[in-house]
Amino acid sequence: NSHLDAKQAPNATFYASSIIFLGPKMSSTLHFTVGNTYNQIPANQAPLDRTGRHRKVHDWTLYVDVVNGDPDLLDRVIFDLGPSFQPRTYTSICPVPIGLPNGRNAWRFCTRQQTYAGITAEITLCGAGGTKTKASHPIRLRRSAPPPRRFAFTDDGEKRPLRYGKMKDGGNFGIELELSSPPGVNPASIADRMPRNAGQVLVTDSYSAGRAGHPDGWKIVPDGSIVCSRDMPDCNRFELVSRILSGGGGLSEVAAVSRALTLIQPKLQVNRSMGFHVHVDVSEYALGHLVKICQNFIKYEEVMDSFMPPSRRDGSQESRYFRSNRDTIPGATNRERHDCLGGGRENAGLVHILNPEGGG
Predict the structure, then answer these.
(1) CA 2 vs CA 7, 120, 153: distances in Å
(2) HSE-CB of 9 using CA atoms within 13 angstroms
(3) DSSP 49-92
(4) Which fold has domain 28-155?
(5) How many Å apart are CA 78 and CA 74, to the nearest integer?
(6) Lower CB count within 10 Å: N or C terminus of the chain?
(7) Are domains 28-155 and 172-278 of this chain identical in fold?
(8) Does position 17 have pLDDT exceeding 80, yes or no?
(9) For residue 56, what pLDDT is reported?
(10) CA-angle at 22, arms to 20 and 24, nearest 5°
(11) What is the phi/psi pair of residue 28, to 5°?
(12) For residues 74-111, b (16+ Cβ closer than 10 Å) or e, as one string?
């Protein structure tokens, strides 16, 4: 018996594609559609391709929409766009929720591209249990769409935990943990309990000295931005700051430090005035890349804020340090704000636009 079932879905507005089934018999099923959106870019605004000879006037998004069932059955979706693309494949591991024209909701895996001609994409759906299904989709370079079909994907493998995203080898980062401890557990005693791979832990009473580099290990610095909990008014307030970490080895070091912190007795405490900060090294990024990061951040700021509790967002009553970056940028629309960010001619200018008052 075939485990791929094609059904008409007359109210949808995307394109169907041919499907090839590769896996064994299944027990968990979802339904999906494959298609693309389309917009034509005016020729005088379209960017040139790498050869400088063709205008990329076709703007499209190729997608796989999970319209029924658990999207976590899919571990990833791989879009193979052919040898003319560099890179030729794009992998989507995190679907986004969307509203469909028929009023229903779906989870979308997708890639957005601009081309000067049509292509046929090869798509591989990889199940969390190991099953794979392939789809072939010719990009439609028009807005009108034939009635789409709906397909079933079934996976009988044991469902695995969601994968961590792979961290770039050599990608540098650092973390800061705002914490408090009971009066009898001072920062020096906490430093003594850190694991060996945290290096020589520096304890300082000076915030400015603590902000200086300490490549040999982590450091504990005072933090006046946090407050003690009501049940521990005489606490020690501090920030545990990592050295510069890198890749998977850095994550392992963070894990070891985290385990050591949980073993300290009496226990360390956190409250709504305290947070966990991650700093990512972007020194290898060109200005154009940084502009795009900032543009996307302010466009989706409200979505990213929704990941956090109200105490860690703009308008927080617990801390005056939370401010919207988007609201500081001149402009009433995303387009106007994007144009403002695009006007930055150097890194310092971009920082000033995004954070005109300076500070952390």
Answers:
(1) 14, 25, 11
(2) 26
(3) -TTSS-B--EEEEEEEEEEES-GGGEEEEEEE--TTSSSSEEEE
(4) Immunoglobulin-like (2.60.40)
(5) 11
(6) N
(7) no
(8) no
(9) 95
(10) 135
(11) -115, 130
(12) bbbbbbbbeeebeeeebebeebeeeebeeeeebbbbbb
H-run or E-run covering 259? helix 247-263
Domain segments of the chain as ranges: 28-155, 172-278, 287-354
Q: What's the CA angle centered on 323, arms 322 and 327, to 5 degrees?
A: 160
Name the pLDDT band for 14 (thresholds 50, 70, 90): very low
Residue among 119, 117, 113, 118 nearest 92 (CA): 113
Per-residue pLDDT at 309 exceeds 50: yes
Length of the chain: 360
In this prediction the pTM is: 0.58
CATH class (in words) of the domain with range 172-278: alpha beta
Angstrom distance (rounded) from CA 142 to CA 39:
8
- Pair of tokens at residue 128: 């969390």
Mean pLDDT of the chain: 83
Tokens of 135: 């789809």
